[in-house]
Amino acid sequence: MRRLSGLYPVVVLVVLMALLPLVSVTPEFWITLLNYIGLSSLVVLGLMLLTGIAGLTSFGQAAFVGVGAYVTGYLCLNYAASPWLTVFIGFAVTGVIAFCLGAITLRLSGHYLPLGTIAWGISLFYLFGNMDWLGRYDGLNGLPPIHFFGVALEAGRQIYFLIWTLVFLSMLALNQLLDSRPGRAIRALRGGPLLAESFGINTARYKIIVFVIAALLASLSGWLYAHLQRSINPTPFGINAGIEYLFMAVAGGAASVWGALLGAALVTVAKDQLQDILPRLLGSNGNFEVIVFGILFVLLLQRAPEGLFPYLQRAAALLRNEKTRGRTIAIDEKAAPLSNRALPSPGTLLLDVKKLTKRFGGLVAVNAIDFSVRAGEIVGLIGPNGAGKSTTFNLITGVLKATSGDVIFAGQALNALRSRDIVRLGVARTFQHVKLLPQMSALENVALGAHLRVDVGILRAALRLDRALEARLLAEAMQQLRRVGLEHLAFEEAGNLALGQQRILEIARALAADPVLLLLDEPAAGLRYKEKQALAQVLRALRAAGMTILLVEHDMDFVMDLTDNLVVMDFGVKLAEGVPAKIRDDPVVLEAYLGGFDDEGGLT
Ligand code: ADP
Ligand code: MG
After folding, report:
1. pLDDT tens sequence across 61-96
2. What is the 3-state secondary structure (H, E, C) of 168-196?
3. Helical H runs in 425-528?
4. Distance CA 576, CA 571 (A)
5. What domains can be seen in the chain, in order of their start residue?
6. Which of 243, 237, 236 is nearest to 293 (CA)?
7. Atom 7, ligand 1: which residue's CA is nearest?
8. Ligand 2 center to residue 400 CA distance, Å?
């Protein structure tokens, strides 16, 4: 029902927009404005994906609009090519340029990335302006209109339909993409590489993909622009335009397709109005709108940092007296289960850590640690804060490279592997400092864990051809939530969960990867007594089902009852190893604990 009621305003909007140019009383000026809003929307939709979702800021999108426009302009004028062909050639050229630029700039982090995009944005602008064959700063003139089944789309009212059909199709495709396996991977880029890579997501690849998609949308906009204007010059493809597109994305709300549309509409209309009003107020034409825009931008970032669309959404929900919450979706419990890895027979050597060492400068965080884990065991890695437990986890999972020593998992050396390859082998983990995507539902966070278990690409997702696999994947995620007792919170945003629940949610996500070995870094931290009991129950059930677990824990009582074996670390070295009862009475361990064990209820 929620989906239906959500669809209603969309249908009204589309019908209204379709009727508008057909009614002759609609002023020509409106049509022109709407056409420009549509063109900007395409670019801003790309930015929505790139900046709003993936967190990669680009000031250079206008340059890609230029590439699309110049490719079609050049080919139509010099080779009398059909625009229906040149649009695809434009995609190819833009795709190649974006791929190359992306491969270079996306490696930059922090502020260097936006700066990099400014650099190539300016370069492409000057390239357009200095090429003889592109008409230098005069550009290209006399472009043909696009023909559609013999009809020349010359008038604004005619090309309007093409523009807006493409806008709505792009919105649909992007929405479908975001709500899918690759879409979740793209959304996970925000959470940083550590999280995404540990579930098998190739973050560098997804960044490039997002970058190219955004560039293609800009190129499409450029193609339309060239045939709407019928002439092009470098000015609208410069860095000013690039900044304006980014402003539209931020103003509307950079994380949703509707925000993109709203931002494009607001800024286009506002600019038009300001260009009209300001000279009248101030008596001369001095591009004052740039200043006013600057002020508005700052105000907006202060008042509605997420943009206007989420702001309006919240206001509307308040009016309707609704609680804003995650969308509930139907889970097909009968979907065929995803295939599972074969578990090793209990007692076989699964993980063998040999002389593992990690130095951070002068500090030896892990010093020649040896221990092993057999299939079907729960092994506890304990020791005071700073003992090197999390570092050991990071070495096993490929987050850190060992200075020396070996990690052998099921007979295979893990040392040279990246974390996304290690999870592929069946080693999944949780993090001591919870790493979830707070704005994604608990269910989607868990689904992220199953990233490697289905293979759905971008195109398939955008065209909605992935639904059977998606249903299986979501059923699996639900199943894992049920396993850890969080089923009732499946549609809650992960960020709204209590810290203890977030830790358990991470366990469900790790389980969704179908691991053979589960590494849990302080899973019981922040849990109350009853919750700890429940967690211990879950872990026992997992062991009974054949799972092997290595866990870091502070609470001695918790590990005493639960584990088959304990490894005690202090200052990076192994103090002792053995069954819990033996460790409990070991004088060396007692000494280390009494002499330094900290906060959360050690041995006392
Ligand atoms: P534990 O998980 O047992 O509390 P850690 O493995 O997190 O301990 O840390 C072990 C030691 O290594 C600590 O002294 C910590 O400050 C240091 N350390 C951990 N990660 C890094 C890093 N990336 N760079 C430098 N020092 C680090
Ligand atoms: Mg730690």
Report:
1. 999 999 999 999 999 999 999 999 999 999 999 999
2. HHHHHHHHHHHCCHHHHHHHHHHHCHHHH
3. 442-449, 458-462, 467-484, 499-512
4. 13
5. 7-319 (1.10.3470), 376-401+417-595 (3.40.50.300)
6. 243
7. 390
8. 14
